[in-house]
């Protein structure tokens, strides 16, 4: 099995094992981020009374990667509607795509598919017409680590 596939399978395994532990009943979701030095960071969304201040599921894991100053290589978000529902993979929202681009356009993200299979694509594949294409790459290099 290719190294990339091993990482992706491990991320999915960690996600589906974590959700029932953290969310025994009802909705549940988790993000798993893999870093270049082979660490895995896990995060969940923050529950608040005011949904306008909620953060995406991936944000906590991204902050952990920043805290340890490691390059993110993969990001996966998995949810379920309730304890009897199948797991679903969610593509990162546009804001999280922008956040993940900090580590470059080759970061791989799990995406939503019609048959809910585990599939990863690079941010560049996910957003081939990204606004940064209007600028020479050397002008943007200081934003990407």
From TrEMBL:
InterPro entries listed in its UniProt record: Cytidine_deaminase-like
Keyword Hydrolase belongs to the record: yes
MF terms in GO: cytidine deaminase activity
Hydrolase listed as a keyword: yes
EC number of the protein: 3.5.4.5
Keyword vocabulary terms for this entry: Hydrolase
The protein's name: Cytidine deaminase
Organism: Oceanirhabdus seepicola
